[in-house]
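Appendix C reproduces, verbatim, an entry submitted by the partner laboratory led by Prof. M.T., so that reviewers can inspect both the input and the predicted structure.
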Amino acid sequence: MKGLFNSTVCLTLVAALAACGGSSSSDSNASTRCGAASGNTVLAGTVTAVHDGDTLTLMTDTTTEHIRLQGIDAPELAQPFGDNARVALSQQTLRQSVRVAYTQRDRYDRILGQVFTSNCVDVNQQLLNLGMAWFYKAYACDLEKPRRTRYEAAHAQALAQGLGLWSQHLPLAPWIFRNGEDPPSPSCAD
């Protein structure tokens, strides 16, 4: 019985440690995915620039890509907390190795991705945890349900605790700042 327990613990540890291994620039191997959903393409590279609180530039072995963090929307630079959000993203990613899991691009040809640090921290969720971004409800159905649920909860917790941009009285969502309107929240099939 003790041998079976030790084998199970060992296999569990190996699986957990393998989730952050590997270094190829475009990799679908499960050991490099950091928990990203299957079916996603995973890029690995170094962040060379942070443009605002939800957009960065990634240099891989073969290409340079612009990455828009999927599922969140940070304040625009001209808004209160816009620069704070850019600094928060920079502190977590700039000149560091990251992985980006994605399935699509936006209309500006940016990759819409889930960014992971070298130790598999979900940067998108971390910005929500810190109160540096909104959960982007208009595009909620683009996320798989478990990630959508985590992001909604992180947003709600930061709001309840008055963290970051939530310390302001009635902060203006960036999509309203940009477009002057609040789009309806979709009803996801799952």
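Residues 1-31 have pLDDT under 50 and may be disordered. Additional entries are available on request from the coordinating office.
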